[in-house]
Write a structure and sequence with these properties.
419 residues; alpha/beta; Carbamate kinase; VC0802-like; 2 domains; eight-stranded mixed sheet; 14 helices; binds adenosine-5'-diphosphate; binds aspartic acid; binds magnesium ion
Length: 419
């Protein structure tokens, strides 16, 4: 008998039939004797619709009211799932973030969970009631509803699993695990039986939206055993096969027996490139560019600066999230006198493609193979960044899928096996 968190994403609760199917999965675990807290997202498309309403009223809307609007999608799905479970004879009760409470900081729209009081939830689920918790939302220090950023229900689930000391957190979604790359882009992508926390963190932060980045951080910090699995699998078939978890386990690196050099390829379309031409090549210039960016809360990612050919001026190129592009340009224009440059050039039709694998720590030549594969396809690289376990390149958006496929095959990810 175990304590479980089961999280179901938007597609998995997309209509009433799917909610009934989710309820059957919950029943399967309850029948096996487990104590269950369920975390649900809004029904597919709902959050987008609510975000669009806010944007249509005002692009610069009040973040507190945005949260009041967008958090409602999850309230609907908790109630519908609790009703469905009740109609199947299962004791169930819905919980909104503030009722638990799930406390967050005050960054409305992108809040971070600061603490969860798990005692009442533990008491209820140990008493045999299924708790159906709204993902994505919490309560800020000002007492108002907050939301955790897009995809935030994953983070709610892992945080609740940590708070109630769950034995496992199962993230049910519309794919049956974490793949070597997005299976919607590369049909030859393979499901990985296990992925280390560290690699999953890189994959998520580099664009693989199967898990929200913060959920992986929390899973790593608290050692939450997290499975990514499909809600579309037949609950009865799983029951008949012994009710074992199937999918991808996110776990410690040393639990992975056969480690590959490269584990996966991720891509992100949410990128924009900015080049500042002819800035003075002197100490303090980078600080004069990136200081104001930090003050404006704009996340700068890749940075390329050349050695000046003539000892006097050089170019600086960097990337920002596409949503921050206009703001970044206006910050640079406001600071033109301090920085001193001849012009600014920008590109928004760019993508970042990344190769990820802990095996890179001990193997040379991974980056070189990526550059060769891209050049064989005639793809030009605009910027490069590397870390111990990843290589990222910025390229024209038109080549995104070609690049992901080329890199996927150059590391033989369609053939590799790992355990
Ligand atoms: P949910 O609504 O269940 O939270 P998401 O749409 O947020 O689901 O995440 C699941 C999607 O993530 C999949 O449909 C898939 O297209 C995408 N994805 C991107 N990269 C990967 C990957 N490496 N492995 C699996 N899925 C991935
Ligand atoms: N419903 C929210 C979103 O669409 C949270 C989630 O699905 O994880 O971003
Ligand atoms: Mg998601």
């Amino acid at each position: 008998m175990a304590r479980l968190v089961m999280k179901f994403g938007g597609t998995s609760v997309g209509d009433l039939d799917r909610i009934r199917n989710v309820a059957r999965h919950v029943k399967r675990e309850v029948d096996a004797g487990h104590k269950v807290a369920v975390v649900v997202s809004a029904m597919a498309g709902e959050t987008n619709k609510l975000v669009d309403y806010c944007r249509a009223i005002s692009p610069l809307h009040d973040a507190r009211e945005y949260d009041a609007v967008v958090a409602t999608g999850e309230q609907v799905s908790t109630g519908l799932l609790a009703l469905t479970l009740q109609s199947m004879g299962i004791d169930a009760r819905s919980w909104q973030g503030w009722q638990i409470p799930i406390r967050t900081d005050g960054a409305h729209g992108a809040a971070r969970i600061t603490g969860i009081e798990g005692d009442r939830l533990i008491e209820r689920i140990e008493g045999g009631q299924v708790a159906v918790v709204a993902g994505f939302q919490g309560i800020a220090p000002d007492g108002r509803i907050s939301t955790l950023g897009r995809g935030g229900s994953d983070t709610s689930a892992v945080a609740i699993a940590a708070a109630i000391h769950a034995d496992r957190c199962d993230i049910y979604t519309d794919v049956d695990g974490v793949y070597t790359t997005d299976p919607r882009i590369v049909s030859a992508a393979r499901r990985l039986p296990r992925v280390s926390y560290e690699e999953m963190l890189e994959m998520a932060s580099l664009g693989a939206k199967v898990l929200q980045v913060r959920s992986v951080e929390l899973a790593m910090i608290h050692g939450v055993r997290t499975f990514v699995r499909s809600s579309f699998d037949d609950p009865e078939a799983i029951r008949a096969a012994g009710n074992q978890p199937v999918g991808t386990l996110i776990c410690d690196e040393d639990e992975i027996v056969e480690q590959q050099i490269v584990t996966g390829i991720a891509y992100s379309k949410d990128e924009a490139q900015i080049s500042i031409r002819r800035v003075a090549d002197r100490p303090g210039v980078a600080a004069s560019v990136f200081g104001p960016m930090a003050q404006a809360n704009i996340n700068v990612d890749m940075i390329v600066q050349n050695i000046s050919p003539d000892g006097s001026t050089t170019d600086i190129t960097f990337t920002v999230p596409q949503t921050e592009y206009d703001r970044a340009i206006s910050v640079l224009e406001d600071n033109r006198d301090v920085i001193g440059y001849s012009s600014i050039e920008g590109a928004q039709d760019v993508v970042k493609v990344s190769v990820i694998g802990v095996g890179m720590r001990s193997h040379a030549g991974v980056a070189a193979a990526a550059f060769r594969a891209l050049s064989d396809k005639g793809i030009n690289i605009r910027a490069i960044t590397t870390s111990e376990i990843k290589v990222s390149v910025l390229i024209d958006a038109a080549y995104a899928e070609l690049a992901v496929r080329a890199l996927h095959s150059v590391y033989e990810l369609d053939k590799a096996t790992s355990a």
